[in-house]
Specification:
- The chain is α/β, with parallel strands linked by helices and 219 residues long.
- The strands form 2 sheets. A 5-stranded parallel sheet has the order 2-1-3-4-5.
- It has 8 helices and 7 strands, in the order H-E-H-E-H-E-H-H-E-H-E-H-E-E-H.
- Mean pLDDT is 88; it is low at 14-32.
- Strand 4 (143-147), helix 6 (161-174) and strand 5 form a beta-alpha-beta unit.
- It has helices at 6-35, 58-63, 81-87, 106-111, 118-138, 161-174, 187-190, 205-218; strands at 37-42, 69-71, 98-103, 143-147, 183-185, 197-198, 202-203.
- The longest helix is centred in the first third of the chain and has 30 residues, at 6-35.
- It is globular and about 45 Å long.
- It folds into 2 domains: 1-35; 36-218, Rossmann fold (3-Layer(aba) Sandwich), CATH 3.40.50.1110.
Length: 219
């Protein structure tokens, strides 16, 4: 009659413990993910519903992954418009498991039609940081994530390249400053090909998927 050897029994017990532990920690991770809040602030990079098919915008795709998406972003918004969006965010979302994603500055640069000097970009960026300060004053517990600016694939936008690169460098430099700390989402390396854009400059359905995925992975 065959019996399990003590060594074999030990191996079986250890294996069971590992399986149970993995299942336990997986359930915890899923539970935390399901409790996270995602807030979108800014322009059409985060609210591109006017340019893609129904159900394929950034917010739509995020909502297939979690039901706690709060989209305050608006097509055409500038930095100053973000204050109105901030006013609409309920203070109940001021929690450590709330992640705010901001896309702003692109329309401010576009509105200048490529005529921005280095000094202009710095001044514009300071106004952006003033908004970040206002956001922190209202939502002190949230985690802030800033999307940098992409350069549209269409050559007609090459005149904005220097301004966008300077802007993105400032975002990177300020991300680690005390009182300004935030995570940078690098759209400039994520959206690079013609397939990523519609109407030359707006995020396409393919871009929606990329942006939604990187937001979800960041959370």
């Amino acid at each position: 009659m065959n019996y399990f050897k003590p060594k074999s029994i030990s191996i079986i017990i250890i294996s069971i413990v590992i399986i149970i532990s993995c299942a336990y920690f997986k359930s915890i991770k899923e539970g935390l993910t399901n409790n996270d809040n995602i807030i979108l602030i800014g322009d059409s990079v985060l609210n591109n519903s006017n340019y893609v098919s129904s159900g394929t915008s950034v917010a739509d795709i995020l909502q297939t992954k979690t039901d706690k998406v709060f989209n305050f972003a608006k097509d055409g918004a500038t930095i100053s418009d973000c204050y109105g969006q901030l006013d609409k965010i309920p203070t109940e979302l001021n929690k450590t498991n709330t992640y705010v994603f901001i896309s702003a500055g692109g329309n401010d640069i576009l509105n200048k039609r490529g005529q921005l000097t280095n000094t202009d970009i710095i001044a514009l960026f300071k106004s952006y940081m003033s908004f970040i300060d206002a956001l922190r004053a209202k939502l002190s517990s949230v985690k802030i994530n800033i999307l940098n600016l992409y350069i549209p694939a269409n050559p007609r936008y090459q005149s904005y390249k220097a301004s966008i690169e300077q802007w993105n460098q400032l975002i990177k430099e300020y991300s680690s400053k005390i009182g300004k700390m935030y995570t940078v989402i690098n759209l400039d390396t994520l959206l690079t090909g013609p397939q990523d854009f519609v109407y030359d400059i707006e995020p396409s359905e393919e871009a929606s998927q990329k942006i939604a995925n990187i937001i979800y992975l960041t959370v």
